[in-house]
Specification:
It is built from 15 helices and 52 strands. By secondary structure, it is an alpha+beta fold.
Length: 888
């Protein structure tokens, strides 16, 4: 072998050394990957003590094209189920956090990784001995452990997630501060490996599918857990403006029997998910105390049941959160999904204080991501590159009229190398918005960003809001416009937006409204009322409603006994409101969400809701007073309610109240998006190949859309760099197959072309497999069980004594688990058995004179190729039946 290599390198050696000898599977070239983030930005953490963890991690790496150096192996005992539930803060830090940070630094990935996937059989609760504080592992790795000293019905100090609601790029908006180590962390796990792999498939299979199924926001009858309903209308309004997303609110207790849906937010203790399946990429969660007790019984809906029904991601708390809205996902996570953000981005943007919340799911799932197209223009597979070479490629925005492309990065072998272009909002570009007959211009200043441009334009619009009666709110690169004129409908709002060059700079800044323009609200005006103190015999409550047509409707209840509870009086009054015929029409109102109060201090209360949507119907006023009866007359255009009674009662709130507890959801609304870049990005750049090791490399260019969603378009190509005489060959010995049994030992040989070799190192999934020093050739024996079932790349890096390096061609080998049933054929003469084996696996050959058996072993074979053959040498001339089985 050595002499042949020397002979070949003396003539056309470089061409031979870079010849494409492909063994196994390779990544697809020119592929367009969709989603805000990709496998390049993910670290997969596997627990080497669990075969399921390792196999799931391998599966995820294959499905998401995660580079092999992005896998971190930890060791945590998994012999007891409780080891997979809890670990101390000290163990969490020593086993996971510190190794992760060290790995990122050592492998030059620190600025590249946004996502961390924890691959099953890793503890999901973090605690400190002697303390009552419990965090989830995903949140503790997201932004650090938060000690909740007031336990548990409080919000831990320092637990506010600054990324929440930002609609910004995660790396530019860390949850704590710019110096913190922060990651978008999810765990992928289930009761078994098959279901965990299903979660991966549900996420990967969702990319850019633009599902049309519906998301359901459920306001259940469970008063303590349905509290998110106040936030439903805001999310519904935003997704209506997007125009590409189906969302509906309901009053059902559960999603039982809902069929095929895109997602759900519920609030119930427990319910069945029978008759429900989720579209790929679905997000679904339930607000209850212990949804994150996935391998414990907490008496609550286990979020694993939602994932088993097909959801790609879910969220549940691992400790008693109480009914704090900020500890649970806002329904805006569905609006973020509609924008194209990834599943992990959606969840972490929607939870303000996530320290008790466990996120399980495929983090990159992005069913509404709108990717572009890209291709290398002068780079063929395995092209030979030397010195400083000129390369060219082109990216184009989506055919569906998506955002422009802003930035292009270059990665070599999965590691960031450089930014090829980054197009900011150009100074002197002019953004113009016309509102109700008034035009406003904003000139982009130097060094602007998408966020600063959106904020600057919103400031200009708000300066003129006294004339336009339109208020502007900036959320990252988005501007929300709300009418403040209660009498003006959306059709009467004059609205237009455009961008122009300004002076001399190119037009790289764009202002895009949703296609819908301004829309009227479909939300119903609502106001809450509560009453405190105890009733006395003879005291009464009175409710007076003045409708928009001036009609007055009054109802009252009187306490006739000394033992009547305040909640009973209020409930009777609510019944009178709902039974009054004058309030049943579209100009009426309904009393709902009655709550009798509780010993912890929550008073009896209810909501009064208009029966028609929009601002006009919401102009009902409620008057809570301690006097017997106080007359209140609103303007005739208002829809008024007055709750009054004997002076012993205290009313919350007091005084006249219109039904505008949700006023922002009642006003006509529109949206603007600020983007930057170009719809077509042809690029030419130079690559100094002398800074890289000689040999085989993968060049990957990634283009990002010019919004804060930053959907990626990724194109890759293999090349061979030849600048120095050093070369090497990696050979898999003993096997002529790319599908090999996991129980086999894989022998590799590495032979260098020079005798002055300092080191030969073999790499695969998770990093280095072995190192040999001061030898020009080396052999490595790799037990397949160390890497476990999955598709694995193998390559060697040879370092010469003078510092030059050579990277061998990557060989892809699939390590396979147990065989499925296979067919055995027989041919003659002479009789020969043939079957499709897994190379490296031992098979027993058995025979019997009758098909009913018994079968007796006659031979054992261990094929080294994908073809199993065995020639019958005994019993020729005798009728025999044969079977082939995997050896025990």
């Amino acid at each position: 072998m050595q002499s042949n290599l020397n002979n070949l390198t003396s003539g056309d050696g470089r061409a031979w050394l870079c010849r494409a000898v492909v063994l196994g599977l390779v990544w697809l070239f020119g592929i367009s990957l969709k989603g805000a983030g990709s496998g390049l930005n993910v670290v997969v953490v596997v627990n080497q003590a669990s075969r399921d963890s390792v196999q799931l991690g391998n599966y995820y790496c294959e499905r998401r094209q995660v580079p092999p150096q992005n896998v971190l192996r930890i060791n945590w005992p998994s012999t007891n189920i409780y080891w997979n539930i809890y670990w101390t803060l000290s163990d969490f830090t020593g086993v996971l956090v510190n190794p992760l940070l060290a790995m990122l630094a050592n492998r030059h990935l620190t600025g590249q990784i946004d996502y961390v996937v924890l691959s099953m059989d890793i503890p999901y609760q973090v605690y400190t001995p002697g303390s009552v504080a419990v965090n989830s592992t995903t949140s503790a790795l997201f932004y650090g452990f938060k000690s909740d000293t007031n336990m548990p019905c409080s919000v831990a100090r320092g637990s506010t997630n600054l990324y929440a609601g930002s609609e910004d790029v995660f790396r530019a908006t860390p949850p704590i501060d710019a110096s913190s180590n922060s990651f978008l962390v999810t765990m992928i796990t289930s009761s078994n490996l098959a279901l965990a792999r299903q979660i991966v498939d549900q996420g990967v299979g969702s990319d850019s599918t633009f599902p049309t199924q519906t998301v359901y926001l459920q306001k259940s009858t469970d008063w303590a857990r349905n509290v998110r309903y106040w936030t439903f209308d805001n999310a519904l309004f935003d997704t209506r403006l997007r125009g590409n997303y189906s969302m509906q609110r309901t009053n059902d207790y559960s999603i039982w029997g809902y069929g095929y849906i895109l997602g759900a937010q519920t609030g119930s203790v427990d319910y069945s998910v029978a008759g429900v399946s989720f579209a790929p990429g679905a997000i679904a969660d339930n607000l209850t105390s212990f949804g994150g007790w996935i391998f414990q019984y907490g008496g609550c809906l286990d979020i694993l049941s939602l994932l088993a029904a097909g959801a790609a991601g879910s969220y549940g708390t691992v400790d008693e959160p109480c009914a704090y809205l900020q500890k649970f996902p806002s329904p805006l996570d569905y609006f973020y999904q509609a924008r194209g953000f990834s599943l992990a981005e959606c969840y972490y943007q929607s939870v303000t204080n996530p320290y008790q919340g466990l996120i399980i799911g495929e983090p990159l799932a992005a069913p509404f991501a709108l990717a572009g197209h890209g291709a290398w223009l002068n780079l063929s597979p395995n092209a030979l590159l030397t010195g400083t070479t000129n390369l060219a490629l082109e990216f184009d925005a989506s055919d569906a009229g998506g955002p422009p492309l802003q930035q292009v990065d270059l990665f070599v072998d999965g590691v960031f190398l450089e930014t090829l272009t980054n197009i900011p909002p150009a100074a002197k570009n002019v953004l113009t918005v016309t509102l109700n007959g008034y035009s406003f211009n904003y000139t982009v200043p130097p060094n602007a960003t998408l966020d600063s441009t959106a904020a600057g334009l919103a400031g200009v619009l708000n300066a003129g809001s006294g004339r336009t009666e339109i208020a502007a709110y900036a959320y990252g690169d988005r501007i929300e416009l709300r009418s403040t004129d209660l009498s003006r409908t959306a059709s009467r709002i004059d609205f237009a937006a455009k961008t122009t060059y300004g002076a001399t700079d190119p037009l790289t800044t764009f202002l895009t409204p949703d296609n819908a323009g301004f829309l009227d609200s479909v939300a119903y005006g609502i106001q809450s009322f509560a009453i405190t103190n105890s009733p006395i015999a003879g005291y009464y409550l009175q409710f007076t409603i003045t409708k928009t047509n001036g009609a007055v409707v009054s109802m009252s209840v009187t306490n006739t006994a000394s033992d009547v509870r305040l909640s009973d009086m209020l409930h009777n009054l609510v019944d009178l409101v709902n039974a009054n015929a004058a309030l049943q029409g579209s100009d009426g109102a309904v009393a709902e969400d009655f709550y009798p109060g509780d010993p912890s201090g929550n008073p009896p209360q209810f909501n009064l809701r208009a029966r028609s949507p929009g601002c006009q119907a919401a102009q009902l006023q409620a008057y809570l007073t301690g006097a017997s009866i106080i007359t209140f007359r609103p303007p005739p255009t208002q829809h008024q309610a007055r709750l009054s009674g004997s002076s012993t009662f205290a009313f919350i709130p007091s005084g006249p109240q219109v039904l505008d507890g949700n006023l922002p959801d009642l006003l006509p609304r529109a949206q603007l998006y600020v983007t930057a870049g170009a719809t077509s990005l042809p690029l030419s750049f130079t690559l100094d190949t002398t800074t890289l090791a000689d040999g085989f490399h993968e060049l990957t260019a990634v283009a990002y859309e010019g919004s804060n969603v930053r959907t990626q378009t990724r194109v890759a190509q293999t090349v061979c760099i030849t600048n120095r005489p050093l070369s090497a060959i990696l050979t898999l010995l003993s096997f002529d197959a790319t599908n090999i049994a996991v129980e086999a030992v894989l022998p590799f040989s590495v032979v260098a072309s020079s005798t002055n070799v300092a080191a030969i190192e073999l790499f695969s999934t998770g990093g280095s497999l072995g190192l040999v020093t001061n030898q020009s050739s080396a052999t490595f024996s790799v037990p397949g069980t160390n890497l476990d079932v999955g598709l694995h790349p193998f390559y060697a890096l040879v370092t010469a004594s003078n510092g030059s390096r050579y990277r061998t061609e990557t060989q892809w080998i699939r390590l396979s688990g147990p065989d499925a049933h296979f067919t055995v054929s027989i041919s003659a003469p002479p009789p020969r058995l043939a079957w499709p084996p897994t190379a490296g696996r031992s098979y027993d050959l058995l025979s019997a004179p009758h098909p009913a058996g018994p079968f007796q072993p006659v031979a054992t074979a261990t094929p080294s190729t994908p073809f199993g053959l065995w020639t019958v040498t005994n019993g020729i001339g005798t009728q025999l039946f044969y079977r082939v089985r995997t050896s025990p």
